[in-house]
Amino acid sequence: MELSVLLVSFAFLLLIGVPVAFSIGLSSLATIFAAGLPFAVVFQKMVGGMQVFSFLAIPFFVFAGELMLYGGIADRIVRFANSLVGHVRGGLGMSNVLGCTLFGGIVGSPVADVSAMGSVMIPLMKKEGYDADYAVNVTTHASLVGALMPTSHNLILVTLATSGIASVSVLGLILAGIVPALLLTLCNLAAAYWVARRRGYPTRGAFPGWGAVAVAFAASLPGLLVVLIILAGILSGAFTATESAAIAVAWALLVTVLVYRSLSWHNFIKACAKACKTTGVVLLLIGISAAFGYFLALYEVPQHTGELLKSVSDHPWVIFLMINILLFVLGTFLDMAPTILICTPIFMPIAQAYGMDPLQFGVMLLINCALGLNTPPVGTVQFVGCAIGGVSVGQVMRTIAPFYLALLVCLLLVTYVPAFSLWLPGLLTK
């Protein structure tokens, strides 16, 4: 009965439009009432869930991303991407993919990525004769790569959500996401090029030469170095994964204030305010999800879910396919943070039981969450892109298939070919 109260109340609250954090908290309180337990249990679990030292990485990574976003780095990355691939057919679309990937590696947030790069690239692409739906689809799908990058605070959430289930290090998950991020970028480039050829988009002049590419790369290099600094510092033992987030903030300030001199005091205050707001929301979700996760474990939801999936099939590839479908469906209704915090305790034990490595599951989960960001009814990234492009969600969805296919190819390769996510961690953490 208590489990039914938990799940039914949570689903009902989501359907009537109650924000996710409050839906989780109210359903937990309803379960406490049905079980006759003291209400202090919820608050104890919330406080305990947030009192983790590793959580310090979240506000620092968020703040570093906001500083990069408001510090004017996007324009330099766009110029570098254009110099590299802007001359081929549909070159602006491919420049958009590269630019979003590079900027996503700096800010670690798909929403921030599409906000910054979309504001630059979508109007430019429309001015050059590209259809609005193509410009939006290219931008929104390319920005999803940011969820897998070393600066993504969602990587921290995955490692924390696995606490008590599996031993997943932040470094291991960072390394596990690099090759899939490159693979996803290649798939997005292929989709952008294929659609550009089908629609007959023009080329934009001749290749400017490697000298011009080198100059554009040098201009963007100080911003891009944040990813290399984080990886090199953690691998060398100079600082921990949590400390790397503080290093990212220091580097972001150094680049935007002293090197580029593009961060105004007004934008600095805006970056601080946005980082505080995002951190507050994430920590609230973490605390409430800790209480929710307590009831999931208490009433053996992972075991019941595993038995249900096993009743359909006991073949690992079928189980993994069903897990992907369930994660995708849930991701269309939930944002990334609640999806990670709620689904990890349920599905990771099942995936492990059928031979999937925890690092592989973490990357698979992040790609599914990224797909959800670009799918209604939540679709935060898609809504931002559509607002910038001045086009309806329905129009974008009608032509989304090639870009969706690119993401699905990457997702299936990560799911069924472990080497894509496990080769690099195995190579560098031995």
Q: In a few lines, what is going on in this structure?
A:
It contains 21 helices and no strands. It has helices at residues 2-15, 20-35, 40-50, 57-70, 74-85, 91-107, 110-127, 132-143, 153-161, 170-199, 210-236, 241-259, 265-298, 301-312, 316-331, 336-353, 358-373, 380-389, 393-398, 401-416, 419-428. It is globular, with a radius of gyration of 21 Å.
Please tell me about this protein's structure.
This protein is mainly alpha-helical and 430 residues long. The protein contains 21 helices and no strands. The radius of gyration is 21 Å and the shape is globular. The mean pLDDT is 85. Helices cover 78% and strands 0% of the residues. It has one domain.
Please give the radius of gyration in angstroms: 21 Å
Shape: globular
Fraction in beta strands: under 5%
Largest sheet: none
Distance between the termini: 48 Å
Q: Quickly give the structural class.
A: mainly alpha
What's the order of the H and E elements?
A: HHHHHHHHHHHHHHHHHHHHH
Share of residues in helices: over 70%
Number of helical elements: 21
- Runs in which pLDDT lies below 50 for 5 or more consecutive residues are none
Report the count of strand segments.
0
| pLDDT averaged over residues | 85
* Number of self-contained structural domains: 1
